[in-house]
Structures are given as structure tokens and as C-alpha cells.
Amino acid sequence: MENFICTTCGVQAEKSVAEPDTCTICNEERQYVSPNGQAWTTLEEMIQAETYKNEIVQEEAGLYNLSTSPNFAIGQTAYLVQGRNFNLLWDCITYIDPKTIGEIKKLGGIDAIALSHPHYYSTQVEWAEAFDASIYIHEDDKEWVTRPSDRIIFWSGESLELAEDIVLHRVGGHFKGAAAAEWKTGSDGKGVLLTGDIIRVVADRQWVTFMYSYPNFIPLPASIVERMAGQLAGISFNRMYDAFHRIVQEDAGAAVQRSAKRYVDALNGELFDT
């Protein structure tokens, strides 16, 4: 029995004797099955290959980014937030090995793991077991969990306070239960928002965007983006980090609001004439 990992999305399935026929995460319009066909690996195979290593880099006081080199699957970045007496792993990466565990324990370990959406569930149960941590997923995305665990806590409502300075917000959009993490004491007390790719920073780092599917270029309706912007208008944050290590360094709250307006204007045919 193995916990097989989809090589396209990097999400781990529950134990099975043989490789699953399909990947639940990839086999729908927000993701994709590789043109080369469905393929699987295991964490044990990845470690034994000695191909991958994790890099842990400090972003600012109390915040570290975690990424795997070379890129595996989607290639996202996870973040370790050192809150007030509470360490949060925001989103997850697939590869985890003893070296990574040792380095993170030196930084105080992990008290909880919170996920923005199913594409980054990765090997979340492996991480939770390594650090004796709970996993927080919004109940609206419960159906996408491919490896069940007693460590998973399905939270409900529009927000959840994990610690004195860390709050999860259900934003929706990309997935119904899609969430962002507000770190109130980040950016020298001016606030940080961690968004996965529920909201992505674009090439021009003063702007962000919103999508239903990024790989398949399916936009969100204007009404959904307006609702998301309205929710985020009530949160104070100066800096924003997305899942691919793109950062809005200053005045990120305003960047989200003007980006939402531009997005809606474009969909409504009011931004340009071409």
C-alpha cells in the first residue's frame, strides 16, 4: 500500500495497492491531465532519487518562503509565518525530507497548516504528522481532500482566528472555499496578506489578477471579483505574497482594489476599445 502522488499537481492520495486511474484534482477544468498521460510517484521515490531539495529563505522578520528545487508539479511556494507564539505553514509543497524537518524545527516548528485551496494540498498530511500539527481547510472544499486525516479541521463561515495575529478569510473565487491568510503583525505591523493564487500578482508588481483557472485561462465573472474585492476592502494589509513568490511590496490593499476594478471594466467592455 502506497500514498501515490500525482506528478502534475503534486497532491498525495490515500493509500492504495496500485496507482489510481485518475487524479481527482487534475481531472477537472481548473487543472489538467499532463499531455503525456497520468503519472504517479511516491514521497519515498522522490527522497531516494536525491534529485530534489527544499530551500527555506527569509522574506522579512517572521516570514520564510519554502520552495523545491528543481520545480516539482505546480512549483508553488509555501510560507512559514512566525506569529505571536504560533507558527503557521501557509499552503504546502510536496517534497518533505529529514533535512527540511530539521531546519523548520530550528525555526520553532509548525503549530498549524492552512490551505488556500485544493491545488496546494500536496503532502499536507505528511507535513502535519512530521510536526504534530493540525490542518485547516474550509468546509466548502471538503470534497477535494484526496488523503483524509483526523488532523484535518474543516472550518466554516467567512473567517477564522487561528492566533492573536493570524486570521483566515474565505474569499472564494478560484474555489468555493478558497482562503487567504491575514498576518496582522507582518510588514512591520502594517499587515500582510498571503493569497496562494486565489489572487495572483502579475508581471507588473503593482497589479494583481483573479481567475477561475490559470492554466486554462478561464476568468471569473465580474460579480464574483467585485464580491471578493468588497470582502478584502475590510482587511488592512500593506504587503501581499502570492503562491509563486511574487510580491506587492507596498500599499497592496489599494493594488487589489484598483486591479479588481480594471478586471471588471475589462470584462464589461469598458477598459478598452479594440
From TrEMBL:
Which InterPro entries does the annotation name? Metallo-B-lactamas, RibonucZ/Hydroxyglut_hydro
Q: Which domain of life is it from?
A: Bacteria
SUPFAM superfamilies, per the entry: Metallo-hydrolase/oxidoreductase
Query: The Metallo-beta-lactamase domain covers which part of the protein?
Result: 75-239
What this protein is called in its record is: Metallo-beta-lactamase domain-containing protein
Q: What is the species of this protein?
A: Planococcus halotolerans
